[in-house]
Structures are given as structure tokens and as C-alpha cells.
Amino acid sequence: MLTDDYNEWRECLDADNCELITSYLELIDAMVKDMQHLKAETIRARYELSQKFDPDHKWITTVDILSNLDMPHYDSLAYQQYVSLYYDGGDPMTFKGFVDSMVRLAKGIDDGEY
User: Fold this and answer.
1) Percent of the chain as helix, strand, coil, to the nearest 5
2) Does residue 24 contact residue 47 with C-beta atoms inside 8 Å?
3) Residue 25 and residue 16: Cα distance in Å, rounded?
């Protein structure tokens, strides 16, 4: 936990060239890639369960398989800065390629991308 006398940030006056800030952004990016993989694994598991419990697809839909998997970090200032600096304001969790891949997974089509 950071204490009130923490002062490492004072050494990073220019965020664009700061090794510490760059390191944090790289860490966040690696964690986002992990979350994308975990989301894909969750969808795969849900799809497999849906096949066992609802093989005729009468009750469990693609929407059900994809539900409640959103990231709760969108409002975080750190996450907003990350997407702003690393992806020019785009959110890798909502990029079309990623979302399309998750929808395909929910339909049982696994391209192995995530």
C-alpha cells in the first residue's frame, strides 16, 4: 500500500518518457491480454455446459453465454489513461476483432485466437 510519503512519482515529470509509467502501461496491457484469455476460457466452458444441459438450444442462448462478462474497470482513471496512451483511446476489450471472436466462441466456433 502506498504511504503518504511515497514520492517516486516526483521523478516522473514527463509521463511520455517516464520509464515507470511505461512499465505500468505494459503491465496493464499484459493483464488485459490475460483477461481476454480468461474471458475466452469462460465462454468456452459455458458453451460446453450449454451443450450438455441444453443440446437443442431451447433455453440457453448466445446472449446467456456472453452475459455478465464485462470488465468493471472502465471507470478507473488508470484504465482510461492506459487506453488513451496505449491504444489512442480505443479499448482492447471492445475492439471488433475481440468481440467478434467472443461471439463466435459463444456459438461454438473456436478459432483459437484467445
Assistant:
1) 60, 0, 40
2) no
3) 11
Give the DSSP letter string of 24-60.
HHHHHHHHHHHHHHHHHHHHHHHHHHHHHH-TT-SS-
Which pLDDT score is estimated for 38?
95
CA 54 to chain centre: 28
For residue 63, the Cα-to-chain-centroid distance in whole angstroms is: 18
12: left (phi > 0), else alpha (psi -120 to 50), else beta?
A: beta
Confidence of residue 108 (pLDDT cuts 50, 70, 90): very high
- pLDDT score recorded for residue 60: 87
What's the pTM value of the predicted model, to 2 decimals?
0.79
Chain centroid offset of residue 17 CA: 26
Instruction: Give the residue among 93, 57, 46 at the shortest CA–CA distance from 72.
Output: 93
d(CA 94, CA 89): 11
Query: Cell match 440457453: residue?
Result: 60
